[in-house]
User: Fold this.
Amino acid sequence: MKTCWLLYDAPDLSVNRDFAAMMREYGLRYGLDVEAVTLDRLTLGMDGSGQPYALLDGQPARPDAVLARMRLDLVSEHLERMGIPVFNNSRVCRICNDKRRTHLFLQGLPMADTVFLTDACQQPGALPRVLKPADGHGGEAVQLIETEAQWLAASEALHKGGLRPALHQAVAGKPGCDLRVYVLFGQILAGVMRTAKEGVVSNFKLGGHVALHTLTDAERALAQAVIDRFEAAGAPLCMAGVDLLYDEAGPLISEVEDVVGSRMLYKVSDIDLADLYLQGIAERL
Assistant:
């Protein structure tokens, strides 16, 4: 039996306990002892000889693999330096959990015009624009800005408590509509089209409508180009989401979701993402 940590921060685990329980149950099918572990239970450090170590609840610990459901690339890198395989690896985590890095990494692929904000007071220029925190996920704090007053209010709210990395983008040709392409071990698994109830935030947890979608040739080609770029950089997408927007010329890169959710895929299809993922993990250990 191989031991696997399903690694969360505590708040995320509190809202994903059903998924964690399913992962534990399914893991047994493939000889995997999957334990949900939260970051607050871990102590990571370097010993006197300069080697990395990990303690779980104060005791030395070394799982056979880590299934990362948190967004701290330093934690993933530390565990990798202990010789523990991490899925997705630390490079994926680093690139995907800062939208600015994602856009830089995918240089040369079609994407919406994007400005990285270097100052909380920086003005967006021509409106409308979509304002996003660079480190956000799940549609958190994403806002359509159509007036200067909206910009000032949104910027103040975003940076309340300190400067937060952010960016703003041109509004896509189909605002409030995007495509989540599910990727499993470098292969395109399925597409789900998401449509916002209102505004531009289409995330399922925030009330967006979802429907299974057959990818067009253009959508498939762009998603595959993203997958290939990550693979070539030593950052394979083991379980991830490639999100696409649209303009008049076709699909555009929106972002790449490292800690990809599965609720909407279960809602619109019979694809058992957790089972397929754990089967793939077992094959790689």
